[in-house]
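Hey,

Quick one before I head out. I ran the complex with 2-keto-D-gluconic acid overnight. Inputs first:
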Amino acid sequence: MTRPRILVARAIAPATLDRLARHFDLTPNADDAVWSREEFAARLQDQDGVLTTGSERIDGALLAACPRLRICANMAVGFNNFDTDAMSAHGVQGTNTPGVLTETTADFGFALLMATARRVTESEQFLRSGAWQRWRHDQFCGTDIHGSTLGIVGMGRIGQGIARRGAHGFGMRVVYHNRSRLDAATEAECKAAWLPLDELLATADHVVLVVPYSAASHHLIDAAALAKMKPTATLVNIARGGIVEDAALAEALRERRIAAAGLDVFEGEPTVHPGLLAVPNVVLTPHIASATHVTRQAMADLAADNLIAFFEGKGPLTPVNRPLAAPEKIAAQRTADR
Ligand code: 8YV
């Protein structure tokens, strides 16, 4: 029996590569080389599956060029890099890595919130520059976390983790906005109350974005939304670039229309809007919310588990689409299974 051929698009944990190599004819990207879209498509030509990260775009054009491909296992909970409709139409399964990064990402959301509200990186830069001469009563005064109102936009697993930290750890009043309301028991556990977005923006001392990226959430936080926030408020984005209109945010920060922002994700990352680099009242991190050793290993493992389960015929563990039956893929599966 020939083994399925799997491409790993980026460097990942060696232990996971070893495990994958026991099941598949594996092509890793050991050097973490940067591939153009064309090169990626060329490398995918003869592959049955691919392990992607959030950086590889899988769309109709790519799938049309890779007829053998049957599964894309994303090592990320977000899967806005997948055109799931095109994948379904091409009979390609998509999977993601929910659950394993929830608490780690919620921890980081809180770290970024605290660093932003209490001006941690701005004051460190001041110290490192040698500018610190003496104590001042108003030096780097920020905004309190404890006892303040936390507004969470997007109340999935990670949003709920942030709510629990805020309500139970810091005595915050928690309000949230989500397409659908949580059930009463989850609201009670998170001590969180649903609000319309406009009201949340006007009420919250700290707004944390954890909503998935989609056409509906593109530029959800634009100049008009920022204008609704308190001038003392902080904004934290650990969701996706593109949910915030970075140019509008840079202007709002420069004009102190909101107090500060903490950003782990950016429109067009790794490029960062120059207006954000120019203002002091923003904490900037390079998309690291899930970056702990344990969690990145768990994400790689779950992506691998999805590939293994799929090719063992057990079905994917954490699917993100329902592929339509594609006769040529089924024929390919039968051939591979022989
Ligand atoms: C990943 C993420 O680090 O899981 C997600 O959706 O944004 C991050 O945890 C990134 O997408 C790499 O795959």
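Residues 53-54, 75-78, 101, 290 surround 2-keto-D-gluconic acid (CB under 6 Å).

Talk tomorrow,
K.
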